[in-house]
Amino acid sequence: xxxxxxxxxxxIQVSITLLSILxxxxxxxxxxxxxxxxxxxxxxxxxxxxxxxxxxxxxMIFKATPxxxxxxxxxxxxxxxxxxxxxxxxxxxxxxxxxxxxxxxxNLNSFVLIPLCLIAAFxxxxxxxxxxxxxxxxxxxxEVITTIMMNFIAMALTNYFITYHFHLPETVHTQSISSSAxxxxxxxxxxxxxxxxxxxxxxxxxxLCVICWWVISKTxxxxxTRAVGFNPNAAKTAGININRNxxxxxxxxxxxxxxxxxxxxxxxxxxxxxxxxxxxxxMAIAVALVGQNNPFGIIFSALLFGALSHGxxxxxxxxxxxxxxxxxxxxxxxxxxxxxxxxKYLSRIRD
Amino acid sequence: MENFEIExxxxxxxFGQLLANDNAxxxxxxxxxxxxxxxxxxGKTTLMKILYGLYTPDSxxxxxxxxxxxxxxxKDAIDxxxxxxxxxxxxxxxxxxxxxxxxxxxxxxxxxxxxxERTNAEVKKLVEKFNLSLDxxxxxxxxxxxxxxxxxxxxxxxxxxxxxxxxxxxxxxxPQETKYFFDIMxxxxxxxxTIILITHKLKEVLEISNNITVMRQxxxxxxxxxxxxxxxxxxxxxxxxxxxxxVSKTVKTEDEINKTETVxxxxxxxxxxxKGHTAVNNLSLxxxxxxxxxxxxxxxxxxxxxxxxxxxxxxxxxxxFKIFGKDIDFKRTTPKKMFDIGxxxxxxxxxxxxxxxxxxxxxxMILGRHREKVxxxxxxxxxxRVEEFASKMINDYLIYPPKSSLKARMLSGxxxxxxxxxxxxxxxxxxxxxxxxxxGVDVGAIxxxxxxxxxxxxxxxxxxxxxADLSEILSLSDRIGVIYRGEVKKIFLxxxxxxxxxxxxxxxxxx
Lengths: 351, 511
Prior knowledge:
Chain A is an all-alpha fold.
C-alpha cells in the first residue's frame, strides 16, 4: 500500500481505538447478563436511542460539549507535562464569574455581553489555576496535590457565595443572567433537535479545538510547550524559560476549564447552581486520555462519553444506570491499555 | 570443522523498512574474548539481543555448543548460560550487593525465608574467585560506576553464565577502571568463560580481544584475528572507506597564543554541586580568539558544574566572567542571554540536555533558535523554512537516515550527536562550550565532528572543550588545563605534553 505514513498511522490508531471500544462492549455484555438483562437488547436500545433519534444526537452533543472544552484543558496541561486535576474547581469558579458578569451587567447588548461572559469564564478558571501555577513555579509544590485542594476550596467558596450573597430566595441558585448573554439553542436551526438544550457552546467548543490544535502545532509557544513537556532539561539548556512556559500553560489550561462552564451557564439553565459541573472536570481527564491529548481525538472521545452519559436515560428501564458507569470505565481501561500496543506497533512501522 | 561455542548463521532481522541484520554471522570459540565492532546502527546490538532472546530473528540459525537452539526470551538465554551486561545497568539501588546478586534466584531456608548467611558466603566466594573487589553488604547507591559494572558481572556469574555479552562496557569507565575491567575479563576468559564485547573503541579491541567480527549496515563484513590486524584495517571495514585518525590542524606556538586577544576570561569562580559540595573551587582560566582550550580531568572534578555555570544553567557562589570585553553577571544570566551574546553549547548528555527525542529531526534542529525571525514570527513557525534548513543540515552533516521527519529517537547515537553539533554550530557562535562531543559516537562520525570543531576554531571561535577521552583532548586542543577537585592545576601547550603527564596531575599528583 502506498499510503503516506501519517495517514497509515492515523488509520491504525483509529482502528485500534475502535477495536478496544468494541471489546469494552463485549466485556460489558457480561455485566449486563449479570444484571439480568439481554445485552443485545440493551445495546440495540442504546444505539437506537442515541444515534437513530435526533433528540438523542442532540443530547449527546449537549453532554459532550463541556467534556470537549475541559478535555482540551487537561490535554494542554499534559502536553507541557502538567497534571491539572483541578479542572473541576476551575469550571466552578469560571462558571461563577461568568454568571456574575451575566446577571450584573444586564444593560449591555449581546455583542458585548457574550464576549464579556466568555472572558469572565476564562479568567475565573485562569485565576483558580494561577494559584497552583505560582506555587508550582516558585516553590515546586506538585500541582496534583494543590489543584485537588483548590477543587474543595472552589466548591466551599461558591457555596458560601450562593448561600449568603447571591442566591434567589427559596432556591439554591443565583438569579438568571441577562438574556443578552444567552447562547442560542441548536434547535433554532435544526428543528429535529427540539427539546434538547444543546446550544452554541458546542460550536465554540469545536472552534476551541481548532485553535488549540493550531497553537500547539504551529506557534512558537506551542513548540516550546511540547519541548517542555517532552524534555524540560533540553528545553532549559536551549534557552527556553520553562517556568514561564509552565505558568502560561497552566493559566490557559485553567481558562479553558473555566470555559467548560458556559454550556450550562450561558446555554442551558442561565444561572449558577451548586454542583452544576457534575464532575465534568474529572471525566475530562478520561476524555483527554482516550483522545490521546489530540484536539480532534478529544472531540471524538467526548462525543463517546456524551453518548454514554445520555444512554443512562435510554436504557433506564432495562438495567440499572450503573451499567453505563461500568461501560465508561471499561472504555477507559481498554482504550488506554490498547495505546501501549498501538505505540509499539506504530514505532515498528515507523522504523 | 572447528567447534564453536556460538554459531550464528544467516541471521536476518527486519524492523519495518529497516534491515537491522542482513544475513549476519558470528562464530565464537569457547574461552575467547571476541570483539563485535561496527558503527552505531550497524546491527551489533540487534544481533546480541537476538542471541540473548530479546528479539527473534526473521530467519537464520543459532547454535550453542554445537546444538541448534531457539531462544525466545532472556529466560531461554539464561538456561543456555548466556548472560548480558547492558549499557545501562539494571540494579536496585536501595538493595545491597548480595541482594542484587540473588534477586530472582534467592537462596532460602525452608523455601520461605531468605538465607542471608549462605547468600553472603556464596557471593563472597564468587567475588574472591574473580577478584571483583566488592563488599557484599554495601548498598548499590554507594557504589561507583566501575563497581556497579562488576556487580552486573557478578550477577551473571552467580547464574552460572558461560557466555558473557558486554554492550559498550568501557563507555562509562575511567582509564584506571578500564584497566581493572580488562584484568577481570582476562581472568574470566582463562576460567573458560566465553566473552563477547560490543564496542567501537578500536584501541581496546586490539588490546583485549582474540578475534574480531566487524559489522556494517547489518552485514558481517569481516572476521579478523586480532594479532594480525591493526586499527586502520578494522576502521576501514567498519566505515567502508579509509579513516583519518589524526585530526589535521595548524599548530600554534606559545608566542602566537600569547599575542592573540583574550575573548573569554573567568576569574576566581566557585560553584557548588547539586548536593551542596564545592565543585568548582576558585577556578580561573582564559580562552583566546580561535583557540580550543581543553580541560582534562577525571570525571566528577567540577567539569559539569563549570560548563553549566558558563551556560547560564547554574548559579555560582562567586566569580567574575568577562566575554568579548563585556562583564557578565553570572548570578543573573540565563541560557537565553548567553546564547544572545554568541554562546553555543554542546552538552555532555545529548539525551538529557541536547535533544528532545520525541521531536522530529527538523524540530530538533531549531531548538533554541525557534524564535529567530528566519524561522518564525510571534504566531507562526514557518515550517517550510525549518524543513529547508533541516534538509540542508542533514546534507552538510551527512546525517543518516536523511529524513527530517523522523523522530530523533529513531536515529543512532552518532547521528543524534550530529544533530546537536549541526544545530549549535549553525548558530554562528563566537564562543562554544563542548562537552564529550564524541561519547558513544562511531569512528566515521568522530572524524567528522572533529573536523567541524576545528573548522569552528579556524573561523575564530573560542572553544572550551571537555572530554573524558584524553586522546581527544590532546589532538584537538591548543592549550590544556588539568582540572582536579575543581581547580585548574596546570596549563600545558597541547603539543608539549602527553597522556602520562596529564594523567599524573589528573590523579592529584604534584604539579
